[in-house]
Amino acid sequence: xxxxxxxxxxxxxxxxxxxxxxxxxxxxxxxxxxxxxxxxxxxxxxxxxxxxxxxxxxxxxxxxxxxxxxxxxxxxxxxxxxxxxxxxxxxxxxxxxxxxxxxxxxxxxxxxxxxxxxxxxxxxxxxxxxxxxxxxxxxxxxxxxxxxxxxxxxxxxxxxxxxxxxxxxxxxxxxxxxxxxxxxxxxxxxxxxxxxxxxxxxxxxxxxxxxxxxxxxxxxxxxxxxxxxxxxxxxxxxxxxxxxxxxxxxxxxxxxxxxxxxxxxxxxxxxxxxxxxxxxxxxxxxxxxxxxxxxxxxxxxxxxxxxxxxxxxxxxxxxxxxxxxxxxxxxxxxxxxxxxxxxxxxxxxxxxxxxxxxxxxxxxxxxxxxxxxxxxxxxxxxxxxxxxxxxxxxxxxxxxxxxxxxxxx
Length: 409
Description:
The chain is an alpha/beta fold. The chain has two domains: about 35-270, 3-Layer(aba) Sandwich (Aspartate Aminotransferase, domain 2); about 275-409, Alpha-Beta Complex (Aspartate Aminotransferase, domain 1). The protein has helices at about 50-70, 85-95, 110-120, 215-225, 260-275, 275-295, 325, 330-345, 375-409; strands spanning about 75-80, 100-105, 125-130, 145-150, 155, 160, 175-180, 195-200, 210-215, 240, 245, 300-305, 315-320, 365. The strands form four sheets. Strands 1-9-8-7-4-2-3 form a seven-stranded mixed beta sheet, sandwiched between helices. It has a three-stranded antiparallel beta sheet with strand order 12-13-14. Helix 1 packs parallel to helix 5 (about 260-275), helix 6 runs parallel beside helix 9 (about 375-409) and helix 8 crosses helix 9 (about 375-409). The radius of gyration is 23 Å and the shape is globular. The N and C termini lie close together (about 10 Å).
């Protein structure tokens, strides 16, 4: 029996317009519009970070960050080592222990915090309230007599909490929030939070390695009254002789920071002020989400990984591939097709680092934070359709060949 020859489909011409900035990575993220290396010319390089000038720059990062975010009086904000990861670890290892702990987990990083609590700190009274990629856990299941650890925005799933109404105003425990891909792009209800962390390389497009740790007066009281049952490394220590080390929250960093990265952080903060502060930043990010949502509404192959519209992130915008031929593929072939899609976009120079996170379902992840221009998002969308059509042709032709070989055999 003669094998049927696979259909030869004509190549689709690529779109004419390209994004001006193809940087859609979810971290480190796109630099602010108009950025150049000249923005770092004033960096106090070759200086001790303890000298008056560099220390003033560090303090300026803290104060400008507080101002843009609208952080309440009485909160402390410090620059800490090891990016957002270091900030979260400092909080978990320094604050947990006096109460039971609930950890909300619905994507990769929140699962990491659950691992810390259960397997590293080995807290006996700890539970995980989880959900698969694309969904939130049952927020009603949280017990606010306990400490609660959660991300505000799932960077690897594109699922965010819709608001802070689920956080008890009269909570007994601490609300410990990893907000790394939410800070400067989403409203954070400071009166419902006690610890908030983020990193410079997300919404404002700064350089990596430095984290920010914000503490409410309730969190400070816990630090000063609680001595952890385990040893604390030097880079985690925020108290001295039972009192808060206030210097950390005035620019006296625990370890040596990069003054180039500090200068870049200040550049991002000044730009944030120039576009209307927090309200302007949120509007820019939400406009990017709106552009993608309008495209998805008529797409034949793409959807949001986040199932509930109220939980869809405006920063780490995660796309699922819904085409029937794709969903019918075995898991390994779905992963290969999604990787091929991201590789095509990168080869064409229209979207760099746009593949889904390695632990997430196969798809794409398009950063929509405030440094990304909506015009670039709109220019990218036809390229997504073009690249998908190319992948569809490749993979359906390959499937036809395998079917034909099976028939011939």
